[in-house]
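I had to read the description of the data format several times before I understood it. The format is easy to grasp once an entry is in front of the reader. For illustration, here is how one protein appears when written out as sequence plus structure tokens:
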Amino acid sequence: MSAPPLTPVPEQETRAAAAPEEGLRRELGRWTLTAIAFGGMIGSGWLFSAYYAARLAGPAALLSWPVAGAAMMLVGLVLVQLGATRPRAGGMVRWPLEASGPLVGTAIGWAVLLSVASALAAEASAIAQYAAHYVPGLYRDGRLTARGTVAAVALLALLALLNWFGVRLFARITTALTVFKFGVPLLTIAALTAAGFDSGTVEAGGGLAPYGWSAALTAVAGAGIIYTFNGFAAPIELSAEARDPRRDLPRAVITAIVLAIVLYTVLQLVFLFTVPAGQLGGGWHGLDFDSPFGQLAIALNLGWLATLIYADAVLSPTGAAGIFVASGSRETYAAARNGVLPAFFTAVHPASGVPRRTLLANFVLATVFLAPFRGWQEIIGVVGVLSLLTYSACSVAVSTFQATDRDPGVWRMRAMRWVAPAGFVVSSELIHWAGWVHLRVALPMMLTPVAVFAFRYRRDRHRLVAELRSGLWFVAYLAVLLTAAAVGATGGTGRLPAPWDSVAVGAAALLFHRWGVRSGARRTR
């Protein structure tokens, strides 16, 4: 899969677009960025997502990975365009502010804050869950114990410390871990395949689509597949520290996403056809693993593989969490630049080039997030929805910038005219498919930033009304998504049955994208 053709850009424009932000250091090259993107996608997702997707959709889960990967490719092209032409630390927070104003910027800043905290909590939870194989008492009855929570907090503190001293140390550790993290899933695929496929799993589990083909779409968000792909965005958030973002970001992101699609589709296939048919008496819904691939290896008498998987189950999420710590600190830094947090958090430590205050803030938030959500699957559904809202806002931002920037020298993807709306529609559909159970938690959280925004502008009624008008499309968008989930077929009442609920969401998304771009262009002009 390749990127759409690019128009030429003068060299002086490249240098201007890639100008570094004050205090941040441009030390990341193409292969480091690729390792960061791919390493961010090989975390706890490879350990759990194939299992949860199989439980939700059975063999139909094989469709979930290509669907999610194609969606992330569209989103990735949008973010590459933004990161290459407007490199920002935490750009996914700041681009919506620049394009749509402070209401949308505050909302996305809030979504990113929650997403960063929950992603860190999810990785720490996954590590403790697998580590319970060696240290009993960390995980019990589907949740972290108090002891497991303390261990997860200690791990988050260690990761913050590794990022404390600069991006170069973080990059070296990430690159080394990515090589190992890629090797273990490949070895798992080879060993489980050699142990023998059980062709009876399809029949024993109720056929190719025992819960309907729509279950494959539900699994995209509900099984953590979108969460797994989210790691691709890490180099975008570090674009202000890339040596040549225009050249290196597209190659790094596209390469990483294609590799991830192939790897995870094959992992899903191997999992589906190596589960012993005898364990499917209650169907795929009846599967019950705490450490899916580790326990599957033991069931197939591959003790050596189980030992390796349990070791990697600590290293893979640790590497991904380290990436989230680095990119998340830039996102929180950007949220502070947007005014979601006090200006105190915009400081960058001069010696290390790291926003250390936001490192500490994210550590505290992630620790708090572990309290109500102590299990991996409880967390990742909310993370996926919040991330997709950010991608939606960025799709509107790139179209807004292209509608208002008439400079012929600015680098543009020729296909962005259709890629951006398509990315917005796809993100909206994925949010809808996450289901009512997740949306009823995630979307009401977005009411808080609206209140924060109103409080900030309470003394300037004229500005308040003007900015409300510019950002009204986003508030209406959230309301429509929540309503569609409530009455749709993805856990709602079913009054709007499938596939008409998805058709309605897609049509509404095209209208909201157009509304958002028009509002942003009007505000800019």
